[in-house]
Write a structure and sequence with these properties.
It catalyses: Hydrolysis of terminal non-reducing N-acetyl-D-hexosamine residues in N-acetyl-beta-D-hexosaminides. Strand 21, helix 10 (430-433) and strand 22 form a beta-alpha-beta unit. Helix 4 packs parallel to helix 6, helix 7 (351-366) packs across helix 9 and helix 8 packs across helix 9 (393-412). Helix content is 29%, strand content 21%. 46% of the residues are buried. The protein has 2 domains: 4-209, Chitobiase/beta-hexosaminidase domain 2-like (Chitobiase, domain 2, 2-Layer Sandwich); 215-581, TIM Barrel (Alpha-Beta Barrel). By secondary structure, the chain is of the alpha/beta class. The chain has helices at 55-61, 99-120, 176-187, 229-241, 265-271, 281-293, 351-366, 381-388, 393-412, 430-433, 465-468, 489-494, 522-526, 529-538, 547-562, 573-577, and strands spanning 8-11, 14-18, 33-37, 40-44, 51-52, 75-77, 81-84, 89-95, 132-138, 154-160, 167-173, 190-193, 198-202, 205-209, 215-221, 246-252, 297-304, 324-325, 343-344, 371-375, 418-422, 441-445, 459-462, 505-512.
């Protein structure tokens, strides 16, 4: 086998292999070559009179749709490329507002290099590769964390240095998170060419970019079924590749409480499926650190007052009743959303001290103090009515919410900038009964009710289940019908509920509930549909799922796979090789 790399040419629009100058083993002769015609990669059979070009290289040099999510600002991409190597990338920090930001940049750059090495595979290509100097300047926040008010804008410029052949990459941003997004865009302009087993990077580029919405989330339920930490880490990586910024960790529910907290150790002892199926404090810290380096915050939700099951069903030291009511009730359907039943007792004087301890530890573990999720999903007023023999049980929910907010305010020093609740029966009473906290309260909406007059003016995060619930189509475990229709990536992408009114919308979030999902099916359930949501929330073009969007998402899906995620295909391999004919 002759190394084809020395005969690999950078020629205008195409990187080409010349037949006469290289010898493929007969078993590895490429079956196809691609040519850029009218900004489309068109396949043909190779012959000795033609040049060979891989689909990977054609995709990167032809249509200009390499970056996902599509940038919102000005963009210019070269149609030429240079050979590079993972070890040839070096970092130079030109400006940073704090030592902490500098340390995060250094660690994040090491992750970047690891990601490039993963792309590189078994490269043997060019003997002479270009060195790349990545220069980063951050002129804003001293805080590297993703915050509600974090500016995520960045500018990326790639150019060759004519003096010494060095490739220069300049990334400027207001925050660490913006600079990290710049690194993510940079790696999307680097690819592996299988025809010559070499890594390439665009020779020149200019990208000016910032997101449309500041909250771009993915919820993962790890209570109904347990997911190992490695799967959560991989999900974080996929979010970073797609520039999502909030990992909403629905860590407890009626079935399990797998989170170990020092202040309430009995909850995980009672609530975990086994001694192995728990998340330790070290697990949480490792996940939070990984997420921060990826420009992502971890938002832990302990769902209360409903969905507590039997975990909380022990007698307290008070003279009142148990912490949990309606525990393990049968038949379950009149008193709870799903078994096992269990809902917190708002009259128990010990309850709010316990919640205070939980809130304190969550804030300490995640370092997220400007955003909090209070749960509030599927509250069963019937449970309280049954137990207290009182038909005004909605008032109990108001009092529970007010007391919980008071405890959160106490442990955090103030209410977080955005304190989220799932939409519930008391949402229309926020402005009246909870008016002292209304400016800090946000609603997460699963149903298409956000334009209802009762919640106008309340900040919202949209999670419409008829568009962004990634479990739809699997049916309910307790039902025999087919359930809600499947949300295809096209449906996810085209959902724009704010098209006529964007007021008070913080952003959106896809949800992944795990009643019928485990770790072996996680990646294919989430990806690339969550990436479709990511572009909707980052770019928000009026364009629907057109043929060019199909081709771009297919390219991004291959990028997810190359980075270690088992993302589902969006169509057949034939369509990948002939994208504009499908």
């Amino acid at each position: 086998m002759i190394l084809v790399s020395r005969y690999y040419l950078v020629l205008g629009l195409q990187i080409l292999v010349t037949f006469s100058n290289c010898s493929f083993s007969r078993s590895k002769n490429p079956l196809w070559t691609w040519e850029c015609i009218n900004e489309k990669c068109v396949p043909s059979r190779p012959d000795p009179t033609n040049k060979l070009q891989s689909l990977e290289t054609c995709n990167m040099l032809c249509a200009g749709g390499q970056i996902w999510p599509q940038p919102r600002g000005a963009i210019s991409l070269s149609t030429t490329a240079v050979p590079v190597h993972a070890d040839s990338f070096r970092l130079k920090i030109l400006l940073t507002p704090s030592r902490t930001v500098q340390e995060y940049l250094q660690e994040s750059f090491e992750l970047f290099r690891e990601d490039v090495k993963r792309l590189e595979q078994s490269a043997f290509g060019f003997e002479e590769r270009r060195s790349v100097l990545v220069r980063i300047a951050i002129n804003g926040s001293e805080d590297p964390r993703m915050r509600i008010d974090t500016e995520e804008n960045y500018k990326l410029v790639i150019r060759p240095n004519s003096d010494d052949g060095l490739m220069l990459v300049d990334i400027s941003a207001s925050t660490f998170c913006g600079a990290r997004h710049g690194l993510e865009t940079l790696i999307q302009l680097i690819w592996f060419d299988p025809y010559v087993a070499s890594l390439f990077m665009l020779e020149a580029a200019s990208v000016d970019d910032s997101p449309r919405f500041k909250y771009r989330g993915l919820l993962l339920d790890t209570a109904r079924n347990y997911f190992p930490v490695r799967d959560l880490m991989r999900t974080i990586d996929g979010m970073a590749i797609s520039k999502l910024n909030t990992f909403h960790w629905h860590v407890t529910d009626t079935q399990a409480f797998p989170l170990q907290l020092d202040s309430v150790k009995h909850l995980s002892k009672r609530g975990a499926y086994s001694l192995r199926d728990v998340y330790t404090k070290d697990d949480v810290r490792a996940l939070v650190h990984r997420a921060r380096l990826r420009g992502i915050r971890v938002l832990i939700e302990i769902d209360v007052p409903s969905h507590v099951g039997q975990t909380w069903s022990f007698s307290s030291d008070s003279e009142t009743d148990d912490l949990s009511l309606c525990t393990n009730a049968q038949p379950w359907s009149p008193l709870c959303h799903e078994p096992p039943c269990g809902q917190l007792n708002p009259r128990n004087t010990d309850l709010f001290l316990l919640l205070e301890q939980v809130f304190t530890e969550i804030i300490q573990l995640t370092g997220v103090d400007d955003l909090f999720h209070m749960g509030g999903d599927d509250v069963s007023l019937e449970c309280w009515e049954h137990y207290f023999n009182d038909t005004n049980s909605e008032n109990y929910l108001i009092e529970f919410t007010r007391s919980s907010l008071d405890r959160l305010r106490y442990v955090n020093g103030r209410l977080p900038n955005l304190t989220l609740f799932w939409f519930s029966s008391i949402s229309d009473r926020i402005k009246t009964d909870l008016k002292e906290s209304a400016d800090f309260i946000g609603l997460q909406l699963r149903e298409f009710t956000w334009k209802h007059k009762s919640i106008n003016g309340i900040r919202t995060v949209i999670s419409h289940e008829d568009a962004w619930d990634l479990n739809n189509g699997m049916g309910a475990w307790y039902d025999t019908n087919g359930g809600i229709p499947y949300n295809s990536w096209q449906h996810v992408y085209e959902h724009r509920p704010w098209a006529k009114d964007v007021a008070n919308i913080e952003g959106g979030e896809a949800t992944v509930w795990s009643s019928t999902l485990s770790d072996d099916g996680l990646d294919a359930t989430v990806w690339p549909r969550a990436a479709a949501l990511a572009e909707r929330l980052w770019t928000d073009c009026a364009e629907g799922a057109t043929r060019p969007v199909h081709a771009r998402l297919d390219l991004h899906r291959s990028r997810l796979v190359a980075r270690g995620l088992k993302a589902a295909p969006i169509w057949s391999m034939w369509c990948t090789q002939n994208p504009y004919t499908c």
